[in-house]
Design a protein that fits this description.
Helices cover 34% and strands 25% of the residues. By secondary structure, the chain is an alpha+beta fold. The protein is flat. Adenosine-5'-triphosphate binds next to strand 16, strand 19, strand 22 and helix 14.
Length: 600
């Protein structure tokens, strides 16, 4: 029941997106292309506002984060260093009957009676036989003949058109993911499928010219770390952020834009000192002691404190654009879910209408953003694969180290040595080589050298836009022109990210004074915000169109504005608020300042 309601809501949202030009299928006139979406006029503004606001908050308003705009196609070695060339793969399975492809880890477990067959022979032509085994899971309540029918179809595809099924046997099956949930047919064994899109650079197609469309924006930040640090004269701790397209050849794009094959990411790599360096400089390492935001960054913060800080900053960001905390879930990955290099990862989930439900029937949420403490893995990998040093020199550490007593130096060196040796062994270095390299690096720590660690908040623009659309969607009732109540669809976007901030309407389009004045007001507001001018149709209809677009403010120029209802109302307009539908009179010369304050 809850599920069908959710599907219904999602259908209404998708339909509004298409009707009002938020999002529609790419290449629609050719039937679309699966996993690719275009943003129409309102969607393009929404996305731009999301990205601009993220950029403002994450870099422009901070002293310790700088921006980067790198290419989509990069040197293929980058993907070897990052591990994407070998491990960025999902397990896929195909339906043996329909050939439909699924991600093996997303198959819903099913129970029932499995019908197994050892093969089939053609009853009209005995030379045609197949010994290929095949199975079908019979859903509860279904007649065994439907399993046999599916099996005959399977063998018919192998040229046995009049199949006599061989060696039928049945087995009770519980929570199996070996069968297609749509038709019960057996699936192939899982095979790994690399999600990177391949292309060729230059006129010759060969192994040497193979390159990839980036599956994430982060790697460019690591590869350019040294250059950016140098040119921006930043010192650790500091961050580099980037917004850009990413491409993944997802096996099963679904849930509208949630899982697309082309999408945009907003990523920050925030580089921090290893805890051993913090301890050498500050005497101890601060770790989170209480829940909530840890406050302004401090020199004695270790990686856990920085990680917590970014989780809280990111949650506050979502709240500041209108996603209430109750719609978000802070999910701490369990140790067994963590990538091998990650020390901790928090996923911020949004409760989309299509999210799975937990045992209590609550929406469990789907990932909007992951915030990972990635240790020094990324820069270390690029150091190994490029042969270029990725470490930094930290003057403060060098000076602090000189003041430490020998016991402290030994303890910190030992810990640093162990963490470097672990990294080297985990990434394939032989134990003796790892030992020697780690020892050398531990000695470097005392000279002020180390490879920075990183905290990575990585968000998807499209998933966020979809969350904002789902969150904004509302239906209520409002009076039409004749005062009759009718259903109103209203997109309650936060004014910060609303595609259009204000709509300007002359009350009547055939009154030149009203039209002239309305255009003046439009031109007055336009330098400060996106404005939509509309003079067509009854005023109630025009309000309704803007409610659907999510425009927070409507400004109507009426006879009062012209001074026809008394001199005291001259040069005032009706300001109508989308959510409350309340109307008030505002002086034209204060209007821009008032609205600017509400949309910033
Ligand atoms: P998922 O588990 O959902 O595939 P992920 O953990 O692989 O996501 P990351 O590699 O952490 O995702 O990417 C960071 C962010 O990029 C995600 O939180 C999400 O917002 C966005 N993202 C990743 N894959 C897609 C996709 N196929 N379509 C849209 N956005 C995506």
């Amino acid at each position: 029941m809850a599920e069908s309601k959710a599907n219904d809501l999602m259908e209404r949202i998708v339909s509004l997106c298409k009707r009002r030009g938020f999002v529609f299928q790419s290449s629609e006139i050719y039937g679309g292309i699966n996993g690719f979406w275009d943003y129409g006029p309102l969607g393009a503004e929404l996305k731009r506002n999301v990205k601009d606001f993220w950029w403002r908050v994450m870099t422009q308003k901070r002293d310790d984060v700088v921006g980067l705009d790198a290419t989509i196609i990069m040197h293929p070695k980058i993907w070897e260093a990052s591990g994407h060339a070998t491990t960025f793969a999902d397990p896929m399975v195909d339906c043996l009957l329909t050939k439909k492809r699924f991600r093996a880890d997303q198959i819903e477990p099913q129970s029932g009676i499995a019908y197994h067959y050892g093969g089939a022979e053609d009853s009209t032509d005995k030379t045609k036989t197949s010994r290929e085994p095949y199975s079908v899971l019979l859903a509860p309540g279904k007649h065994p003949d439907s399993a046999r029918k599916a099996a005959r179809q399977f063998y018919a595809q192998r040229g046995i058109t009049e199949a006599r099924l061989l060696e039928e046997r049945t087995e009770k099956v519980e929570n199996s993911i070996r069968f297609n949930p749509e038709n019960g047919s057996l699936l192939t064994e899982p095979r790994l499928f690399n999600l990177m899109f391949k292309t060729c650079v230059g006129p010759v197609e060969s192994a040497e010219s193979t390159a990839y469309l980036r599956p994430e924006t982060a790697q460019a930040i690591f590869a350019q770390f040294k250059t950016v640090a140098e040119v921006s004269r930043q010192k650790v701790p500091f961050g580099i952020c980037q917004i850009g397209k990413a491409f993944r050849n997802e096996i099963n794009p679904r849930n509208f834009t949630f899982r697309s094959r082309e999408f945009e990411q907003m990523e920050l790599e925030f580089f921090i000192r290893p805890d051993e360096a913090v301890e050498a400089i500050c005497g101890s390492v601060a770790r989170p002691a209480s829940p909530g935001h840890p406050g302004e960054p401090q020199a004695n913060w270790g990686w856990q404190m920085w990680h917590k800080y970014w989780v809280e900053e990111r949650l506050a960001f979502y709240e500041s654009i209108g996603l209430p905390r109750t719609t978000l879930v802070e999910y701490w990955q369990k140790p067994e879910e963590l990538a091998h290099y990650a020390r901790a990862t928090v996923d911020i989930l949004y409760k989309f209408p299509f999210s799975k439900r937990d045992a209590a029937g609550e929406l469990a949420g789907e990932e909007l953003e992951g915030i990972a403490a990635r240790s020094d893995f990324d820069l270390s990998q690029h150091q190994r694969f490029s042969g270029k040093a990725m470490g930094v020199f930290d003057e403060e550490l060098k000076e602090a180290w000189a003041r430490l007593d020998e016991a402290k130096k030994a303890a910190l060196s030992k810990r640093y040595f162990e963490s470097r040796r672990n990294y080297l062994v985990k990434t394939g270095e032989d134990p003796a080589g790892a030992e020697a390299k780690a020892r050398e690096e531990a000695a470097g720590l005392g000279r002020g050298n180390y490879v920075p660690h990183v905290i990575e908040p990585s968000a998807g623009v499209d998933r966020l836009a979809l969350a904002l659309i789902c969150n904004a969607y509302g239906e209520d009732t409002a009076p039409d022109e004749k005062g009759r109540m009718e259903t109103r669809i209203v997109m309650r976007f936060h004014p910060r990210i609303a595609p259009v901030k204000a709509a300007v309407f002359p009350l009547l389009k055939n009154k030149p004074e009203l039209v002239r004045k309305a255009r003046e007001v439009r031109d007055l507001l336009r330098p400060h915000m996106t404005v939509f001018y509309d003079e067509a149709g009854a005023i109630g209809r025009r309000y309704r169109r803007q409610d659907e677009a999510g425009t927070p403010f409507g400004v109507t120029i009426d006879f009062e504005t012209l001074g026809e209802q008394g001199a005291e109302l001259k040069d005032t307009v009706t300001l109508r608020e989308r959510d409350s539908m309340k109307q008030s009179r505002v002086k034209i010369d204060t209007l821009a300042a008032l609205l600017v304050e509400r949309i910033r």
